[in-house]
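Design a sequence for this backbone.
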């Protein structure tokens, strides 16, 4: 009564998901995906952050932030960026860019909204823009916000 397909091996039926999992592997081979506990899921949560959030913008994206006891991150990509394939690709790249920053991010609700240049930007540019926005709003732990116009120290030696 075999229909010709292996029912016990369902992973081979979904090659796109396997490719997506491979995208989140870091250099050591460990899985470095954004865990579901860190993601905003409900429309009401997104609306709350849009309504109450403080925004900061960069060339590739806009970040909205609201204080909270938990750390949750959401991503929004509009239809102006292209078809569903292009939008999902941008979301996957944004998720991958935020993973190394999660341990240093202050608790709160974050929403990253992709702008048009995010569709063609390389991965390092997306990661740099995300880090720039977090630093600009002083949302990375262990970093002090510099006074505007203050010289930046080089080499880490106290002056």
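Sequence:
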């Amino acid at each position: 009564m075999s229909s010709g397909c292996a029912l016990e091996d369902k992973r081979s039926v979904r090659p796109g998901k396997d490719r997506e999992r491979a995208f989140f592997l870091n250099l050591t081979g460990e899985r470095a995906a954004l865990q579901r506990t860190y993601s905003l899921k409900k429309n009401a949560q997104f609306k709350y952050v849009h309504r109450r959030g403080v925004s900061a913008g960069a060339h590739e994206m806009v970040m909205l932030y609201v204080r909270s006891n938990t750390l949750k991150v959401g991503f929004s990509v509009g239809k102006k960026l292209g078809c569903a394939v292009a939008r999902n690709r941008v979301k996957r790249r944004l998720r991958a860019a935020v993973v190394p920053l999660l341990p240093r991010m202050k608790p709160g609700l974050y929403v990253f909204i992709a702008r048009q240049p995010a569709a063609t930007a390389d991965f390092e540019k997306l990661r740099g823009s995300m880090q720039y926005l977090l630093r600009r709003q002083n949302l990375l732990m262990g970093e002090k916000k510099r006074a505007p116009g203050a010289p930046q120290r080089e080499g880490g030696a106290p002056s």
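Residues 65 and 119 are 23 Å apart (CA to CA).
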